[in-house]
Design brief:
- This protein is an all-alpha fold and 211 residues long.
- It is 70% helix and 0% strand.
- The protein contains ten helices and no strands.
- α8 packs across α9.
Length: 211
């Protein structure tokens, strides 16, 4: 899902090229065609090979076109709390895509068609929503929650500052936000009162699946 985040953020950014768009689309296609098989059957070499290719193409895409706020927020959490980077990206990705709103609907629609989630005649907003929902479904299937409860409320202004300074002006994000506008995302990622540690639940689920 880190590779998926690379491909998506590279594709929806404002500094793409024909080559990076092509690589991002190919990565998304390969991921949606193979990730469940690779997850359910680790001995399936073809699926794992295709996932490796997807990771490569996504890497080619974001190396030139950069990423966005998903990575900026994930990096701040990794630096402060050692949250695994791929896990942070997976948790954050749908939240940020929803926040970008209609600005990325057309591009998300193209990703949805490539992923086999919509056809070319599907309205952009509907197709984009299907793509975001597919990511949420993927998270649920893999036991990845919606919270990162390690976050301390007193750290949020600092974390948002880090993410802001990383993303602007380095990343060609589709919607520009300042540190104050980024703070609510960290609040949303905090554990709700009485909610179990969803990140740890996801890890336990994954470990059981492997064993």
């Amino acid at each position: 899902m880190d590779a998926l985040t690379h491909a998506v953020e590279a594709y929806i950014g404002n500094s793409t090229t024909y080559g990076t768009r092509r690589d991002a689309l190919l990565a998304v296609q390969l991921i949606f065609e193979n990730i469940y098989t690779a997850y359910d059957d680790g001995s399936n070499v073809e699926a794992r090979r295709n996932m490796l290719h997807a990771s490569f193409y996504a890497g080619c895409a974001f190396t030139k076109s950069y990423v966005g706020y998903v990575h900026a927020i994930a990096h701040s959490l990794g630096g402060e709390y050692n949250v695994p980077h791929g896990l942070a990206n997976a948790v954050i990705l749908p939240m940020i895509l929803e926040a970008y709103g209609e600005k990325i609907h057309k591009k998300l629609a193209r990703l949805a068609v490539t992923a086999g989630l919509a056809d070319k005649d599907t309205p952009c907003r509907e197709a984009g929503e299907k793509f975001i929902q597919a990511i949420k479904d993927m998270k649920k299937y893999f036991g990845i929650g919606d919270r990162i409860p390690l976050i301390q409320e007193t750290d949020i202004p600092k974390l948002a500052h880090y993410a802001d300074k990383e993303a602007n002006p380095l990343y060609p994000v589709p919607v520009l936000m300042n540190a104050e506008e980024l703070e609510p995302f960290y609040h949303r990622l905090m554990e709700d009162p009485g909610e179990r540690n969803s990140v740890e639940k996801g890890k336990i689920s994954y470990d059981r699946k492997r064993n």
